[in-house]
Amino acid sequence: MKRSYASLVVLIGIFSIVISCGRKDPKLFRLLSPKDTGLEFENTIIENDSVNVFEFMNIYTGAGVAVGDINNDGLPDVYLSGNMVSGRLFLNKGGLKFEDISETAGILNSSWGTGVTMVDINQDGLLDIYLCVSGGAQESERANLLYINKGDLTFEEKASEYGLADTRQSMHAAFFDYDKDQDLDMYLLVNPAAYEQSVNVSQQRKLNGESISNDRLYRNEGNGTFKDVTMDAGILTEGYGLGIGVSDINNDSWPDIYISNDFIGSDLLYINQKDGTFKNKLSEYINHTSYAGMGNDVADINNDGKSDILVLDMRPEDNKRQKLIISSTGYDRFQLMLNAGYDPQYSRNTLQLNRGMGEFSEIGFMSGVSSTDWSWSPLLADYDNDGFKDLYVTNGFLRDLGNLDYINYQNIYDNPLGDYEAKLRKKLESIRNLPAAKLNNYAYRNKGDVTFENVTEAWGIDTPSCSNGAAYADLDNDGDLDLIVNNVNQPAFLFENTADVFGDRNYLRIQLKGQKGNLDGIGSTIQITTDSITQYYEHYLSRGYESAVDRTVHFGIGKYNSIDSLKITWPDEREQILTNVKANQLLTLNQSSAKIKEGAIGAGSYDSPLFTNVTDSLEISYNHKEDPMVDFKIQSILPHMHSRNGPGIAVGDVNNDDMDDFYIGGAAGFPGKLFLQNSMGQFSTSSFTPEAHFEDMGALFFDADGDEDLDLYVVSGGVSLDNERPSYQDRLYINDGSGNFTRFFDFPDINSSGSVVTASDFDHDGDLDLFIGGRVTPGSYPTPAKSYLLENILDSKTGKMGFKDISASIDNWSKLTMVTSALWSDYDNDGWTDLMVVGEFMPITLFHNNQGKLVHIAPEKAGLLDTSGWWNSLVGGDFDNDGDIDYLLGNVGLNNRYNVSKNTPVSIYAKDFDKNGKIDPVMSYYTDGDEYIVHSRDEIIGQINAMRARFKTYESYSDVTFKEAFLPEEIEGSYILRSSLFESSFLENLGNGQFSIKALPKSCQIGPIEGILVEDFDRDGNLDALLTGNSYTTEVSIGRYDAIKGIVLKGNGKGQFSTLPIEKSGFFNDWDASALTRLTNAEGTMYVLVANNDAALKIFELNNQEKGLFSSIKVPANIVSAEIVLNNGTSYKREFYLGEGYLSQNSRSILLNDIIKAIKLKDNQGNIRTVYDNDSLQ
């Protein structure tokens, strides 16, 4: 009997394994049948000769969804808007069953419905329905509709009585209390169906409120009517609005408005002025936006208490559709757009990360949400109940009008000559033959680190469709958010969320009971905290595209069974705080229970910032002026220009008065300047004026001639002229000891475009030798310029000076390609400074100093394999306090389209493919598992005209791999470079010549890092770092790298870093930064200098430092390193560099603080002496 039972158990187990192996993993969402749910609706569009895209451009833009409990039975009901069909109202009967009550409810109409929202407009406790209307040629046909809820499941249309029967062809409306008078006002999003001008041509913008495409603002008069106050309120800028988001963008407790505009019209950010007016401040808060802005949503994606902004566009995910529908912008066209007053815009989804203090960083590429094709509605909400807001995106278009072959075909019929009717018939026929862009919608799971994972298939929402409006709501009250989606020519979707069947998916639902005038508490904010994780929510219902979500607030809280604290701030700024709130319940919060909060908003949130901008108070005026060179005129498919890489900064005491002075480089036509410091800590410009026709790059103060004063070396770079011209000659200026400089001409010819200069007595002969990095051969990118190692052959007896190029004697010197930064550093602590070099399309490259002879170290022998990147900068510091030097390296970052990895590198194939005497730098990258050309068909033809005959259509070009695009014999002989690592990184020194590379925090990956400065800024005994970056030189299809705002990395002494928010750091620079250096003033105060390309120099003061006699120690010229001993017994090593970071040289000084016990200096002969002992000072 026992044996039989055991056998049965085994059989059951085997059977279970078989069953489980054959069963698919459960999906988060389940698409329910309309027949089963009763939610039967289809937004059917039928084209004809009078209703078509040529007569009505918005014919395919679809309609929205609104969700709300119209009969207060605790179940959210659904309204689906219709274009050529009437919208319909569905009553939720429970159990995900619905009843169509449209006819009996009295809401059927013949209007072209667009956006819809549910709002209790008359404050009787019942939700009403406001429907936006477009379409009709007659005003009476396009008046917006307001259905007043009579409380018996019937409605009465009363838009005219309320003053809301606007006839301007609107897309959506948002209700909120903009003037804080305790009632709900309305913003109306306008998008005319027939545009009065070309929508993609740069022309003078209308900013006076009189355009037919100007939005409207209606103020609630408090007497049951609304008044159009558009002009008085400052809503004056035209646009083609498709999305509206309401949020307190600047955290001043007043609601602001974000408008995403289609076509060339810039997005709008209306900041509430608290006096009934708004000002468009987009360019002050946001550096660039989407080009064809679609729907938007505003929510806190990273749980930092700040609302972020997501705007959709039309960039496809796959290579084929990218090449088929994304046209080439072109540098000239982009500049025309900027010159006409439009803000920078790029064809992709944009995710604006709120950095605080009115600053946003656009991180869509890095976050993984940049490309969702012809998208409409983004909805940010926690669908899997893990405590982070995920993203749902609707997608598709009834006719694939973006097809570039179709557009070119249509252009034939736009010729004014010929029979109009015949041409129109041809155009209509071509439209009917154009297939639909029926695409899957997208789901992205928030990974909790500002990045998202595409879980479209895993979550079960990959059904192809032409979807537009969408809304979320917990339709079955089971604690997770379901989705309702409005489709064109396809039944509407109802996705049931099954998160409740998964483990650790707890939630909290909240119902708000506001006061008369705003019964639903619109505009309230809620913060919940669970185990130090704080979620933030703003209560506004119009979201995504043409849609409104349910008024019941939803939080996912993952594994937690309770919430530590909950704080709600009501629209009147009264607060309510609850603690130990039980999970998995519907909690009701009443405004009547709230109390007036204590203290001002944000009071005491932050201590004094670490840095203060003192540029104006120091009266140091320097504005870098760049020459107008445009590299794309020479090589049109460059990834970025090389004519605007400066300026550099060198710091040193040039007149021997024991005070730091500095030189900042110029550009061709605008010479650099030397600033001298006086005993009062003030700076004035020297009479020294270098030649103006050079493009300055790196600069270095060093003693070239052994006379114990600092001479000046300046690297000449850029690509403005042909190669091998005198304007690329580097310059050496000899100091007379008083800060007067004379150019030294007996110098090796270096007529190549360079980048960096750094010095060291690498051969221990008592003088300083130079490394000069070569950048690029002008007009022949990516061909590198030559790099040099110049041995100083100073005769100590006669004082005769000279330099000798010995680079040819060093094996594998040719491994150096487009150099950007270099560092002389003794990484193995053998007393000889080694050379570390980085650059563009170049691995981290080591030359070990074997007692005065440089020996190249193979990357695999040092743990540096697969480190080829687009490196910009390199600095050293003992970040783990173990006595050897580790390194921070600035790279291009991850916020770009290339998606590089070890197995998916970005490559460049350089060759004169069309034999016209010019190098064609063709780039490739991996997507969809294959290698493809980066460039669009128009771009590749612009560079290699022969490609026009090979790819006669966009379709023929759209799906060819790189190997199929070129013949093998064409690729043969190409100069090929690859990069597989784009992350700015921490290089840990493991000892024994071995390294381990790790990515720096995500804040350092949102753009290129250029300047890096190392110091213990917060005086905790651990090295920290300042970082700057950005690049405005990129090709316009990818757009400017402009997300870096200035970064303070706080080190923990273990090789780990955390990022200080801007409010705490006070270090802010969002320009195109280059050099980053520090100097000390006459009192020993540390200043940080930030050089910016084509912009002003910025200067910051470190706030927490001691001032006076014992605030810093000057380091003599012969010192190479120091041991900093701390009071707690630990110590770290510090090296002193002549050139580091990006085109930077720092003050040779050590900042003192109360945690330093002793400082021991080591010279280049290995001698050690103690120069500071805190015990002896007591």
From TrEMBL:
Superkingdom of origin organism: Bacteria
Protein's recorded name: Uncharacterized protein
Taxonomic source organism: Maribacter cobaltidurans
